[in-house]
Amino acid sequence: MVWTIFLLLNGLLILILLYSTRTRQKNEPPLDKGFIPWLGHALEFGKDAAKFLARMKEKHGDIFTVRVAGHYVTVLLDPNSFDAVINDSVFLDFTRTRQQLLKRIFSLQLPSIKPTAERKWMEQHFQGLHLSKLSSSMNMHLQNLLLSDNKGCSPSEWQHDGLFSLCYSLLFRAGYLTLFDRKDNAAAVYKEFRTFDNLLTKLARSSLKRGESKTVNSSRERLWELLSPSWLSGESQSSTWQQSYHHFLQREGVDAEMQKRALLLQLWTTQCNAGPAAFWLLGFLLTHPEAMEAVKSEIRRLTLRDTSLQRRPINQLEAHSTPVFDSVLSETLRLTAAVMINREVMQDKILCMADGREYHLRQGDRVCLFPFLSPQMDPEIHQDPQVFKYDRFLNEDITVKDKFYKDEKRLKYYTMPWGAGRNMCIGKEFAVTAIKQFVFLLLTHLDVELCDPEAKLPAVNPSRYGFGMLQPDGDLQVRYRLKTQDEM
Ligand code: HEM
């Protein structure tokens, strides 16, 4: 027994040594393995990926390979070269990495489903006629929730809340009521989801502590139950979004247990970004009075005939162009959307950079784009990148500014909050409309103020880099009250 363990340990040690003796070959990107065998830079990466990758960029330039928990990851930070990764579906792939993540985070296995089939199904719902129905429904739910949450409050009565809680809770519940069939448990789903979402990054990195594992597992199981509609066990006739998803999974041969679990994946995909985005946007407006005034005056100029909460949903917003609001949203997302685009190298590949450099990528390694660092926070592209400038994406004639340059080359990718290529966000239009409806509703129907007029936006929670919209560490305390009819 002792000998077996000894031999096993020896074998393991040899493997570790073999693995950690990788050296940079000709034509490969600079290699930085870190000091810890196998783990490499995993700890620094998981703690604050933006800080770590900025340090590596400073040291190695816009392409380098780092070792992270046994994987070699080539990080590409030149947006002019992104297409070489995004458009390559032969040498680079994301299917296996995605499946691993689904299993780890959602305890979900969908091997029979091709990402292209799922994407096609999603697109049917978030485009065209379906999209405008969903957006109307979202608007109605936002209005109803705002009214019911403030029921019994007189217009003069101030209420206090954290802005993040306020935005996330309202947008989440409205989104849930729009897409999911159970209408009786939105508040419970939101509460449970926040517990799950708070531990999601640790779950993805397999770095949960013992107590946390228990919490996240029971939260996940509770969410599976909460999301299961009564019709799941029987036949359903009508055709809501959730039923359509159920039929899609059935057609693809997914068993009942996995169908149930897949609903949590959909809840996360559709609801985890809009609330945090609305928080940052309103947070920036509240801490930048000139931006707030510019948005409010754009709203005043919109000739909305009916802003009453009690009447039918208003969708004129979609018909009006709102360049100032659009610039504020783009600027907000530039500063707070931090997706990582990951691919696995399926066969050895030569990566051709825009400036003519060529690098060899090894089969089995990974490639990662992190647009948050570049283009979004790149000082060569965006002057004073840390600063919120509400008109950064506006030309002088108040049209959309879309010409940005690096190395004197006009950029195709100057900000990438929605991802790009085959994985680009399907819900972009739905999300933009929802955030716009929400911000509009709040600014026209509520007086919202910072509790402390000098308060600053909270810092970013650094563990969330790579998981879409960033979330704050803490909250921004606000007070709000319903406006009277005359004030609207
Ligand atoms: C501010 C809000 C949002 C942002 C910033 C955002 C961002 C993104 C990003 C960056 C991706 C690509 C992820 C990757 O490459 O791994 C993505 C994918 C996706 N998003 Fe969004 N999203 C938002 C809201 C929404 C909403 C509201 C929906 C639906 C209602 C939605 C549906 C999807 C879907 C279905 C995908 C998967 C696409 C695929 O795998 O092919 N998103 N989103």
From TrEMBL:
The annotated topology with respect to the bilayer is:
Single-pass membrane protein
Signal peptide from the UniProt entry: 1-23
- What superkingdom does the record give? Eukaryota
Q: Name one Pfam family in it.
A: p450
What does the UniProt keyword field contain? Endoplasmic reticulum, Fatty acid biosynthesis, Fatty acid metabolism, Heme, Iron, Isomerase, Lipid biosynthesis, Lipid metabolism, Lyase, Membrane, Metal-binding, Prostaglandin biosynthesis, Prostaglandin metabolism, Signal, Transmembrane, Transmembrane helix
| Catalytic activity annotation | a hydroperoxyeicosatetraenoate = an oxoeicosatetraenoate + H2O; prostaglandin H2 = prostaglandin I2
Documented EC number(s): 4.2.1.152, 5.3.99.4
Please tell me where heme binds in this chain.
Answer: C425
Q: Which InterPro entries match?
A: Cyt_P450, Cyt_P450_CYP7A1-type, Cyt_P450_E_grp-IV, Cyt_P450_sf
Cofactor section: heme
Q: Which GO terms describe its cellular component?
A: endoplasmic reticulum membrane
- Kindly list the places in or outside the cell where this protein is found, as annotated in its UniProt entry: Endoplasmic reticulum membrane
Q: In the record, what terms sit under GO molecular function?
A: heme binding; hydroperoxy icosatetraenoate dehydratase activity; iron ion binding; monooxygenase activity; oxidoreductase activity, acting on paired donors, with incorporation or reduction of molecular oxygen; prostaglandin-I synthase activity
Nucleotidyltransferase as a keyword of this entry, yes or no, is no
Subcellular location, principal: endoplasmic reticulum
Identify the residues that bind substrate: R104, L110, N273, R366
Question: What PANTHER family has UniProt attached to this entry?
Answer: PROSTACYCLIN SYNTHASE, PTHR24306
- Role: Catalyzes the biosynthesis and metabolism of eicosanoids. Catalyzes the isomerization of prostaglandin H2 to prostacyclin (= prostaglandin I2), a potent mediator of vasodilation and inhibitor of platelet aggregation. Additionally, displays dehydratase activity, toward hydroperoxyeicosatetraenoates (HPETEs), especially toward (15S)-hydroperoxy-(5Z,8Z,11Z,13E)-eicosatetraenoate (15(S)-HPETE).
What is this protein's name?
A: Prostacyclin synthase
Which taxonomic lineage is given here?
Eukaryota, Metazoa, Chordata, Craniata, Vertebrata
Identify the gene encoding this protein.
Answer: PTGIS
